[in-house]
Amino acid sequence: MSELIVKCELCDEIISKTTEEALSFPMTGAMFQSPDPEHGIPAPFDPILSWEDFRCPHGRTHRPFISQEVISTTTGPYRVSKNGAPGEFVDKRPEIDRESVIDRTIVPTDEQAASTVRAELNKNKAPEKKPNTQDLIKCDVCGRSFQQRGYLSHRNSHKDKE
């Protein structure tokens, strides 16, 4: 059982450990273990994730592997076999545009940003309360003014004084 120390292809950081026997196609998060479990570092991927959902634990913005079938290790690139045969270390792999593995950030237009900010400001703004003087009832015991609902509960406080 040969252990592989897996690196991110983009940032070159060590992200996990695995074995040649554990790797198969298609790759899942369960195949990759913590790079340093003795120090409490968790496994890099949720066990149910597929290659498409993998994100490098160093930044979580890019995929750690450019190809679905080749991973980067400290020993060199390792090709996971698609037909169930053992994988192998490879010397070269095809060049893939790195833009395809980095999530594109969507930049809103100035109008969209201003609209979003206005909506947030209006959402957090407390509504102005205007005194409603036309529906007030004056307490005949103490002289304070209340709306009908407040007056009924206030009136109960004067029961023992009457």
Q: Could you walk me through the main structural features you see in this protein, from its secondary elements to its overall organization?
A:
The chain is an alpha+beta fold and 162 residues long. The chain has two domains: 104 residues, no CATH class; 32 residues. The protein contains two helices and seven strands. Strand 6 and strand 7 form a beta hairpin. The longest helix has 15 residues. The termini are far apart.
Keywords:
162 residues, 7 strands, 2 domains, two-stranded antiparallel sheet
Q: What strand line-up does the widest sheet have? A: 2-1-3-4-5
Strand composition percent = 5-15%
Estimate percent helicity.
10-25%
Instruction: Note the main sheet.
Output: 5 strands, antiparallel
Report how far the terminal alpha carbons are from each other: 92 Å
Give, in order, the helices and strands. EEEEEHEEH
